[in-house]
Amino acid sequence: MTEAATTSGTKSPEATTPEARKRKRNESENRTVMLRTKDNKLVEMKKEAAELSEVLHRQIEEGFVGDAIPVDVKEKTLIRVRVYCDAHSLLASWPSEVVKQRMKQNFDDEFSQTLDFAKRFFMFQAAISLKIKGLVDLLGETLAAKTSGKPIDELLSMIKEDNELTPEEEEQVLRDLDRIVL
């Protein structure tokens, strides 16, 4: 089949062979990674987005892509982190630096406004755990402003309001709050 025939919308016969479908499926799989959350759920993430995390980037490079990479983050929080990473990895490919920075700033502003204190706090913990610098910076600034002058007990009650915490998780939250408030 000629090149003109294949580019004019007619599919080449090779595109429908089992080998071609398998090759396409493998290419698609290589563009995503599976993550196993703290609450034992699987979350799929685009490879480019996952690589914004220093931790995931290192594990992908070491060959852990075929299996689910364990992360110390709950599913609900990881899905929010994925939204941030998807947007930032997409914007990273934009050619205009000025437009890219303006779009990132707009996204970050809108994104952080949608988060209540508890969501922001858990995402901050996740960003630290996964070493996602941009997200740590974004959430760290707003958390510092929101915690300023408030007692730790009040902050803990804000976090526990909609979240069931195990005793271990509550201890970790208290340690992290101590670091933020001090």
What is the count of β-strands?
3
Helix content: 55-70%
Task: Specify the CATH class.
Answer: Alpha Beta
Uncertain ranges:
1-14, 21-29
Task: Going across the biggest sheet, name each strand in turn.
Answer: 2-1-3
Give the topology.
Blueprint: H1 3-7, H2 18-30, E1 32-36, E2 42-46, H3 47-50, H4 54-61, E3 69-70, H5 75-92, H6 97-113, H7 117-130, H8 133-147, H9 152-160, H10 167-181
Helix pairs in contact: 5-6, 5-7, 7-8
Protein described:
- This protein has a single domain (13-181), classed as Potassium Channel Kv1.1, Chain A (2-Layer Sandwich), CATH 3.30.710.
- Helices cover 65% and strands 7% of the residues.
- The protein contains 10 helices and 3 strands, in the order H-H-E-E-H-H-E-H-H-H-H-H-H.
- Strands 2-1-3 form a 3-stranded mixed beta sheet.
- Helix 5 packs antiparallel against helix 6.
- The longest helix is centred in the middle third of the chain and has 18 residues, at 75-92.
